[in-house]
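Anyone up for a design puzzle?
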């Protein structure tokens, strides 16, 4: 009888002693599960959170070396302050924070909240921290980037003014996460940097993210799904962790290996044609620089 190899899990994370990581949106759900796993493996992990008190409460339950710093991705001033306060090297940045299917609202800078938080906030944060980053950037996307209806970047109306729909906005932001990863990796490689950009998605994971949906019907359906169909946040964080510690090519995309990529062990997965278009990725990058006022650092300032 042959023994089936065990599937990758947190016990397979190599020793992280001496490494420093930042995890955004780290006070609950996938974020705190990511923090717990990295800190448990020896890393020093910074919980970058909007609500410091909630972050400190979450950090109190983590075994290992952690600290809490304020970061509001819906406020570019906060993003700049967080990055300006960083000293020394940073091995790993995990762009995990996000909002999902919320009612129409705007960031402090006037961007549609889902695009502004999920993409533009992380775009600015990554580029501002890039001179400190020595290993990789992992950005959490979603299977929603290829939802029915052919999600796209609405370059003519990024805020979806007059045509806002929660799912449309969420899908756009998650597509933007993958295009951002694609273009970031291209720029890093072109600059001669060994830093890698990767993306991951959790499949269907039960977190607080779904509780803010703008539709009462969808909230009810998600409560049922979270209870009977979804994997827990620890399992949902595995693709992020796999992308964070495994030796993978730049621009890799990791998700669950189960049916429909809804649950299971982490593995390399595919992305939609829209998320693989280098021309769209470059256009989005240019627009994002214009909107945030943050640009890709000069090659001399990026770790080789």
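Challenge accepted. My sequence:
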């Amino acid at each position: 009888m042959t023994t089936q190899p065990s599937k990758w899990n947190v016990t397979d994370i190599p020793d992280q002693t001496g490494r420093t990581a930042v995890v955004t949106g780290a006070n609950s759900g996938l974020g705190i599960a990511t923090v717990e796993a990295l800190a448990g493996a020896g890393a020093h992990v910074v919980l970058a959170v909007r609500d410091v008190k909630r972050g400190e409460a979450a950090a109190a339950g983590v075994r290992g070396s952690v600290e809490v710093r304020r970061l509001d991705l819906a406020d570019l001033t906060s993003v700049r302050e967080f990055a300006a306060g960083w000293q020394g090297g940073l091995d790993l940045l995990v762009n995990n924070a996000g909002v999902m299917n919320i009612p129409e609202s705007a960031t402090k800078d006037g961007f549609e909240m889902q695009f502004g938080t999920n993409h533009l906030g992380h775009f600015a944060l990554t580029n501002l921290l890039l001179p400190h980053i020595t290993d990789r950037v992992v950005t959490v996307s979603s299977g929603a980037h290829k939802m029915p209806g052919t999600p796209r970047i609405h370059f003519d109306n990024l805020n979806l003014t007059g045509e806002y729909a929660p799912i449309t906005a969420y899908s756009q932001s998650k597509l933007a996460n993958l295009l951002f990863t694609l273009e970031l990796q291209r720029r890093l490689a072109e600059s001669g940097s060994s830093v890698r950009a990767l993306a991951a998605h959790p499949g269907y994971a039960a977190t607080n993210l779904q509780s803010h949906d703008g539709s009462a019907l969808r909230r009810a359906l998600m409560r049922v799904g979270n209870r009977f169909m979804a994997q827990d946040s620890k399992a949902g964080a595995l693709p992020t962790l796999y992308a964070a510690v495994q030796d993978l090519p730049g621009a890799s995309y990791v998700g669950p290996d189960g049916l429909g990529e809804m649950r299971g062990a982490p593995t390399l997965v595919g992305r939609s044609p829209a998320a693989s278009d280098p021309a769209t990725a470059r256009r989005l990058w240019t627009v994002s620089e214009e909107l945030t006022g943050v640009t890709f650092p000069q090659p001399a300032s990026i770790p080789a």
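A detail worth pointing out: The first strand starts at residue 20 and ends at 24.
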